Amino acid sequence: MDVKAFQCSQLDKLQIPLVNQFYKQVYKKGVANKSEQVFVVKAKQIVCAARLKAVDDNLLLTGVACDPTYRQQGLASQLIRYVLSLQTETVYCFPYPHLQGFYQQLGFQLLPAEQLPITLAEQYARYNNRQPLLSMSVSSS
Fold this sequence. Notes:
Layout: E1 7-10, H1 16-26, E2 37-42, E3 46-55, E4 58-66, H2 75-85, E5 91-93, H3 100-105, E6 109-110, H4 118-130, E7 136-138
Parallel strand pairs: 4-5
Antiparallel strand pairs: 1-2, 2-3, 3-4, 5-7, 6-7
């Protein structure tokens, strides 16, 4: 399957319910809201999604999910590259430890939690308290 045949796009705020249906089917947690930027890869329907959440003046990449049928085909990488190409500031993420290599291939670097902006550090501490997560960031180029 040619991943270049799939189109990345940013959803209009009115289309947020579509990504929430997708999340309910494949991600089982998290919901997008209209204050977030939501990005998707579509075939006939959404097959991959990601969100950028504004936390004060910082951007947090979250909710990256891919339909199991389409995994291991580079769609999540394609979507994240698309999202990053539209940014002019640092993007942070808190991935599971087993995803470190995946995010590093996309340019993210490990960032000690104490170097996070204060509001992100607080959010990271809450998330990391429930399950171990990494703190990573990538600066726009």
